[in-house]
Write a structure and sequence with these properties.
With 396 residues, the chain is an alpha+beta fold. Among the domains are: 60 residues, no CATH class; 94 residues, Alpha-Beta Plaits; 62 residues, no CATH class. Helix content is 29%, strand content 22%. The chain has eleven helices and 17 strands. The strands form five sheets. Strands 3, 4, 11, 12, 13, 14, 15 and 16 form an eight-stranded mixed beta sheet that branches. Strand 8 and strand 9 form a beta hairpin.
Length: 396
């Protein structure tokens, strides 16, 4: 729908061909199985949605989306300890995937030159020409009555995601298929939804709105994301990495929460009511089809940031280039750096407000080096008196 919104400024009519039927309420649909798992709008994403669809943020808030300031409202546990709490001015919205999608759908339907063709799937591309092929439309199949027809178009965008059949369609036209790059960390998700009945359920010192246990080490191969969404509900995603798949049965899921290195998630869950089963998923493979190499190369920052973390583990399928290894080494230094300017810059890049290259600015690198040396000195001094990692977030 975002692609349709952009195109609507330049063409007479945009038709969105959707395999599913959009639900009338904020509900799940078959084509988006990941909707039951962790979702939130990063600061850059929120800005872009508001730019594409004015009024988006207001509507989301009216429907109960929770505003969160990154760095101030989020308690994050890294392998080295809890992150420092500080204001960043970067705001996110936490909400369910159905609420996000339905809000975009409502605003998209309000645009006069965008139409929808639901319960219809594309089965092939149509093209003309010999030396140079030109796409003239698509073949579509109605999921209601099984009829097929040609849908003519001057411009076709494939936005079908990980399950795109574009490579198959290109082969049918005897065209070269682009190179595939795959990074598979063999990760798995187990998510469960909860309801918080009373606002006063929290102890007064629990200041956080969101909790992340971003461990993902060979010794603790998991990430925990626990955050509020609309209607006093919470979404907990237990993400196992490096083939350490998370528990998918309710009793095992609950027992695993009690064994986490910090009791914060378990203590929060004890004050809530589960309102769903445990939803498992292992469809986490990252795939990049290099269409951009047909023309001018494009930047790969979002891909690198998303996929490089998986490549830290030996079982991950993917190309570990020198740049990826260097970036993973440097990202750990950034995450453990106590300098506030470095922390702000890392937040900006994580939220896609600044480019990845800004992490390598001389003033950032110099602060990372100084902080790393200071931390090593402190570690030597505290080694004899260390009592281990703090269990709860600072201030709790």
């Amino acid at each position: 729908m975002c692609a349709a919104r952009v195109l609507s400024d330049f063409v007479d009519t945009v038709t969105i061909i959707e395999r599913d039927a959009y639900p009338s309420a904020h509900d799940f649909r078959p084509g988006v199985p990941q909707a039951r798992h962790v979702h939130n709008l990063l600061a850059r994403g929120l800005r872009e949605f508001e730019r594409f669809f004015p009024g988006f943020e207001r509507r989301m808030r009216e429907c109960g989306a929770v505003a969160v300031e990154t760095g101030w409202d989020v308690a994050t546990l890294w392998p080295h300890g809890w992150s420092q709490r500080s204001h960043t001015g970067l705001w996110q919205l936490y909400a369910s995937r159905p609420l996000i999608e339905s809000t975009v759908l409502e605003l998209c339907r309000g645009l006069p030159n965008i139409t929808f063709l639901e319960r219809t799937e594309v089965t092939a591309l149509r093209a003309v020409g010999e030396t140079y092929r030109y796409c003239t439309g698509v073949e579509v199949l109605s999921r209601d009555d099984g009829t097929t027809r040609t849908f003519d178009a001057d411009f076709v965008v494939d936005a079908s995601g990980a399950h795109s059949r574009a490579a198959e369609w290109l082969q049918q036209l005897e065209l070269e298929v682009p190179e595939d790059e795959i990074v598979d960390g063999y990760n798995g998700y187990s998510s469960r939804w909860f309801r918080q009945e009373r606002e006063q359920a929290w102890p007064p010192e629990w200041w956080w709105k969101v909790v992340f246990l971003r461990l993902a080490t060979p010794e603790q191969p998991y990430v925990i994301a626990f955050f509020p969404i609309e209607h006093q509900r919470w979404l907990l995603s237990y993400i196992g990495v490096n083939k350490a798949y998370p528990p998918s049965h309710e009793d095992q899921f609950t027992a695993a929460l009690a064994k986490l290195p910090s009791p914060v998630v378990h203590e929060m869950v004890r004050r809530m009511e589960p309102i769903s089963p445990v939803y498992p998923s292992r469809a986490t493979r990252n795939r990049w089809r290099h269409y951009e190499r047909w023309r001018k190369p494009l930047g790969r920052s979002p891909w690198l940031f998303a996929a490089a973390d998986d490549l830290r583990f030996p079982t991950t399928l993917g190309n570990r280039s020198a740049s990826v290894r260097l970036f993973n080494w440097y990202r750990l230094k950034l995450a453990t750096c106590s300098n506030k300017r470095v922390g702000t810059r890392l937040s900006d890049v994580t939220q896609f407000v600044r480019p990845l290259s800004s992490l390598f600015a001389p003033q950032i690198i110099s602060r990372v080096v100084v902080a790393t040396m200071w931390q090593k000195t402190q570690q030597v001094r505290q080694q004899a008196s260390s009592h281990g990692m703090r269990l709860m977030p600072p201030g709790a």
